[in-house]
Amino acid sequence: MNPTPGEGGKVIAFPTTNPPEILDAELVDDHTPVPVDTPAVDGSTWLERLRSQQRQPILPSYLTSLSEAKEAGKWVARHYAHKAGYHLARSPLYALRLAVRSPRGLLLLAVATGRWVTDAEGRPARSETATGDKAELYLKLSQQRDRRVQLRWIQLGLVAALGLVAFLVLPHVLPEWVLWSCAVLAVGLLGKLGSPKDKPVIASRAVLSGKVQKLTSDSVVQALSVLGIAGINQALAKNPDAIGFPAPITRDGPGWRADVDLPPGVTVAEVIERRAKLASALGRPLGCVWPEGNAEIHPGRLVLWVGDQDMSKSRQPTWPLRKTGTVDLFRPQPFGTDQRGRWVDITLMFVSMVIGAVPRMGKTFTLRELLLIAGMDARAELHCYDLKGTGDLSPLAPISHRYRAGDEPDDIAYALADLRALAGELRRRAKVIRELPKDLCPENKVTPELAGKKSLGLHPVVLGVDECQKWFEHPDHGAEIEEIVTDLVKRGPALGFVTLLATQRPDARSIPTAISDNAVLRFCLKVTGQQANDMVLGTSSYRNGIRATTLSFRDKGIGYLVGEGDEPRITRSVYLDGPDAEQLAARARTTRVAVGRLTGYAAGLDLTPDEDDGSTLLTDVLAAIGDADKAWSEAIVDRLAELRPAIYGPWADLPTGSAKATQLASALKPFGISTKQVWGTDPATGKGANRMGVKRDWIAQALTERDQQRGHG
Ligand SMILES: Nc1ncnc2c1ncn2[C@@H]1O[C@H](COP(=O)(O)OP(=O)(O)OP(=O)(O)O)[C@@H](O)[C@H]1O
User: Which UniProt keywords apply (predicted)?
Assistant: First the structure.
C-alpha cells in the first residue's frame, strides 16, 4: 500500500539507528503517522526463518538409491574396461614406437651423462669470469669444477663397472624371462626418453573429455538479460544485482543447477517461453537447458538445470522391470527418467491417463510401455485397442483379455461390445463394493486385498486406446462410446478401472472434455500449440509455464508428466521396441499361465460381437457336462479342450486343477454363473470329494434366458 497521508498529516522517518525501509505508512490520527513495516528484518521469528530453509540431501542420490549406485558402479567399470581395451588393442603400436625411439633415447642419455660428468651446466659461469678482472673468481670456479668432475668420473666408473659385472654375471643367475623383461623395460624407458614432447607414445585418447562449461551466476544473469523480458532488463538497468541467487550453483546429477530469484514482477513462465533463446544465450543445445518453476516458493523462483548432455541423447539407465520382476499396480512403478537420469514413478491404480503429442513423438511407445507395466501385474485384465491399425500393440495380444487393431466397422463393433460389457462390469462392481462390510472396504473403493480375491472379481481392468479420437468421432457410435468411457474415467478408478487414452490430435473432439478433465495423469510429448498443450496437461498449464510446445522434434519419448507428485516433471519414457515388448509380454504371459489368469483373447476365448453374449461357451460347457447333472470344473475344462482344442487347449494346459477351475469361473462370470463346490468322484483314485464345479441346470437356465432374450423362444 502506498503512503496515504490524510489531510494535514505527514509521514515521518522511522526513528531507529538502523532504520527499516519505510515503504508504507498508515496514519492513526491526523498527526501521528505510524509505519506499517516492523523494524525487524522481515518480520519473521528466528524459528520461522529456520523452518523456511530447505534442507539439502545429506548424501548424493547415487548413494541413497541402490539402483543408482549399481548403475554408477557399472558405468565406472565399463568406462575403465573400455579404456583398457582401447589401449590394449594399440599396444603393439606403442611397443613399436618405443623400440624405434629407443636409439634416440640412448643418445640423449649419453649426451646428458657427458654433460653431467663434465659439469657442463657450470660452463657459462666460468666463461663469464674468464675475461676481465675476475681471474681470482675464475680460478676458484675452475678448481671447484676439477674436483666435481673428478668425483663424477669416479661415480660414473663405479656405475659402469657395476653394470659390466651385472651384464656378465646376471645372465647366468637370473631366469631368461627376467632378463627379457629387463631388456624390454630398458628399451621402453629409452623409447620414452627418446620421444619428442609433441609426439607422445600414446597419441590418441580412449575417451574424449565431455567437460562442459561450468554454469556461473554471471552466465545466468547474462543469458537472462538477453531474453527480451522487459521486467528483467528494467530491473537490471536500475540494479545490476536485481537477479538473486538464493542458493549456490551446484552440480546436480549430470548437470548444473541454479536457483534463481527473478526480479519482482517477472514470472518463470516468461523465461520458459523463451527456452530456445535461453539455450542460445548459454551456448548449450536446447535439450540441455531445462528451466522450471518452484511455485511453492513464488512464481518468480526459477530452477534452471543445465545438463552436460542433450536429454534425448543421454543414455537412459536400464529399466528396472526389463529383466525381471512383477508389478503391483497399486504401487509406484518406474515409468521414465527425468533430465537428471533419475527414475520417475507412476501409480496406475485409481487414475485415468491422457497421452498427447504430434505424430511420431513416442505416444504409442509410451502407451505400450504402460500396458506392459499393467500386464506384469497378473491380476490386471488388459483391453488393448490400436485404432491406427498398424499392430503397434500386437506384442500385448498374448496377455490381453480383449485386443483389436484397426478401426473397420467390425473392429468398432467388437470394441462396442467390449465397452458395453465393461459398463455392465462397472455397475456390478459398484454393487459389490456397496454391499461389502465397511471393515473390508473402508473407503468404498478397491483395495489391493480386495483386488487379489478372485471370488469378488475386483481385479484391475486396464483399457488402453491408441488414437482414441477414432472412437469418439465415430459418426454412429461415438456418443455411446463417449458415454461409457466418461463413466469409466469418472466412476471407474475407484472400482479398479484404469483408462489410458492416447491421441495425436489433442482437441475437444479427440478427447471429450468430460474425459480429459477427469484424467488425473497426463503425459504431453511435443505439441505445437497452447490449446493442445492445455488440452493434455490441463487448463492454464501453458500460462503457468508448463509448455510441451518448447520441446523439440528431436525430443522423442520426452514430455511433461503431470499428476504424479506435486510438480509437473519432464520425463523420458522407456524405449522398448517391438522385440523388447514381445519379450516382456512373453514373461508376463508365463506368470499369468502359472496363476491361472490367462483370459479372453489371450486364452483363445475372444468375444464375438455378432452374438450378444460373445461365444459358444455355454453350449460347449453343456456338452462337456453331458448327461450328468453336475461336474467338476477341471473335468469340464479337459473335456472342453477335447471338444475345441484351438479355443480351450490353453485352459487344459494350466498346471493345476484349481487353475483350470479359476479359468472356467472367470469365463462363466459374464453369463452370471458362479462355480460352486460340487460332489464328484476322482477318476484316478475313485474317491469322492467336493471341488469347484458347475451344475447342468445352471448352464441350461442361462442358455434358455439368452435364447428368450434373442427372441428364439
Ligand atoms: N522413450 C523413447 N526414447 C527414444 N525414442 C523414442 C522413445 N519413444 C519413442 N521413440 C521413437 O519415436 C518414434 C515414434 O514413436 P511412436 O510410434 O510411439 O510415435 P507416435 O507419437 O505414436 O506416432 P504416430 O502418431 O505416428 O502414431 C519411434 O519409432 C521411436 O524410435
Answer: ATP-binding, Membrane, Nucleotide-binding, Transmembrane, Transmembrane helix
User: Which atom of ligand 1 is nearest to 504's Cα?
Assistant: 25
> What's the CA-to-centroid distance between 554 and ligand 1, angstroms?
11
Beta carbon of 526 within 6 Å of any ligand 1 atom: no
Please tell me if the CB atom of residue 503 comes closer than 6 angstroms to any atom of ligand 1: no
- How far apart CA 653 and CA 676 sit, in angstroms, is 22
pLDDT tens track for 564-621? 877 789 999 999 999 999 999 999 999 998 888 888 888 877 766 544 444 578 888 8
Beta strand pairing call for 352-356 and 497-503? parallel
Ligand 1 centroid distance, CA of 557 (Å) = 6
Contact predicate 258/265, CB 8 Å:
no
What is the span of the domain harbouring residue 653?
A: 611-709
DSSP 604-632: T----TTSSS-SSHHHHHHHHHTTSSEEE
Does ligand 1 come within 6 angstroms of the Cβ of 573?
Answer: yes
373 lines ligand 1 (CB under 6 A): no
Residue 353 lies in a domain: yes
Q: Are residues 483 and 573 part of one domain? A: yes
With a 6 Å cutoff on the Cβ, whether 361 touches ligand 1 is yes
CA of 348 to the centre of ligand 1 (A): 21
Q: What ipTM describes this predicted complex? A: 0.97
Using N-to-C axis directions, what is the helix angle for 217-225 and 275-282, rounded to 10°?
Answer: 130
Which of these ranges, 49-58, 418-427, 628-637, has the smallest mean pLDDT?
A: 49-58
Tell whether 516 and 409 lie within a shared domain: yes
Please work out whether the CB of residue 364 comes within 6 Å of at least one atom of ligand 1.
yes
CA distances from 424 to 35, 276, 497 (A): 68, 50, 13
Are residues 364 and 297 part of one domain? Answer: no
> Whose Cα sits closest to atom 7 in ligand 1?
557
Q: How large is the greatest C-alpha to C-alpha distance in the chain, in angstroms? A: 142
Instruction: Work out the average pLDDT over 679-696.
Output: 87
Instruction: Please indicate, yes or no, if residue 389 is contained in any of the structural domains.
Output: yes
What's phi and psi for 706, nearest 5 deg?
-65, -45
Task: State whether 444 and 342 are in the same domain.
Answer: yes
Query: Among the atoms of ligand 1, which is closest to the Cα of residue 388?
Result: 27
The residue whose CB lies within 8 Å of the most ligand 1 atoms, and thus the one to mutate among 339, 360, 553, is 360
Give distance in angstroms: CA of 705 to centre of ligand 1: 48
The alpha carbon dihedral of 244, 246, 250, 253 has a sign of negative
Same domain for 410 and 520? yes
Is 315's C-beta closer than 6 angstroms to any atom of ligand 1?
Answer: no
Total domains, the chain = 4
**Cα–chain-centroid distance for residue 450?**
30
- DSSP for 482-508 reads HHHHHHHHHTTGGGTEEEEEEESS-ST
The cell 496514519 sits on which residue?
Answer: 27
Instruction: Please check whether residues 337 and 428 belong to one and the same domain.
Output: yes
